[in-house]
Design goal:
12 helices, single chain, 2 domains, alpha+beta, two-stranded antiparallel ribbon, 47% helix
Amino acid sequence: MYRAGLRELRLIYSTKPKWYFRTAENALIKIMTSYIELFGVEKFMIGFSSPIFFDALAASAYLDELGGGATTVIAAILKNFIRPEMGLAVIGGKRPKGYKVPEELDRVAKIFNFDEDLVNRLKYASRMVAKVDSAAIQDGFQLYLHIMLVSMDGEWVIVQQGIKPMTNLVRRYHWISKGLRNFVEEPHSGIVSTSREELVLDMTDEDSKDARKVCVEAVNDDLSSLRRFYRSPPSGQLTLTDLDGQESSQHIIDVPRIKWSTIMMANKHSPRDFEELLALRGVGPATIRFLAAACIELYQVYPSLRDPAMLFEELPNHVDEDRWIYELIEAIQESDLTLAEKRKSLSRISGIFSTITYS
């Protein structure tokens, strides 16, 4: 079904004329308006949390040729177009705007009449999503975009994008509040990438369940062992063996230098679970990587070292995903686009989704 995700998730540095972006903005606004009028804000948010729907939306506005750069353009158009009277707010954006989410949430709270508890939960969600994708999952991609959609009833969707230094490769992370159990147990609605990394520390994987538990227990109850490991870490790197059936492969993970005061601070707060540990200010990628290495060296408990990202050709062909694409097609057909513009949008979508047909 799925041919390619925005061709490739890499930043394509090419100069586009102003009319190209005006045309894309016009198409995207008219298609989103039509979709929300037909199916509602909730359906739009669910779709936005789907990597497949997101790519179809980008293609419908002719943005697929921008590769990973389409995400930034869509975020900017959404933020300029979506208004609270539509029952939806868009906050965040590309660095440094992505770091102004708390202030923007305060303004949205006044418009939607959110109480303090809900505002704090939304701020916590934004912060934890950023922490998970930078610290709990360490895949070599540095986050530079954080866009958050918030509905008037307090539901949210977040899309983040990271870039791998020294390359043009980017990776997209999708989240949705609906159905989210917690922030550290396979919480994503999708992570998509052009390529899979050989070694990724993924503390959110189901196979990292024991490692998450041991990290918390070590911080709370075994400071002496952690202290010894801190003072005399393995020379250079740990060699990890990841068993897969009858085959084994060697993986390497470095043991970072951290401040011991961070471990003491965590111990003082006595986190009840891994989410509480990760939520502590000051606990970042280095601390989590240090604790993961300690799990292996001290307790022989291994976290997942597999990349959780899906490659585009592996994205599942679910009935629900097909339904969302056909709804998008219906929105295009019912939109205010000209007949020529509609044909162009539909042609772009069918170029990505090989089994999609339209009349």
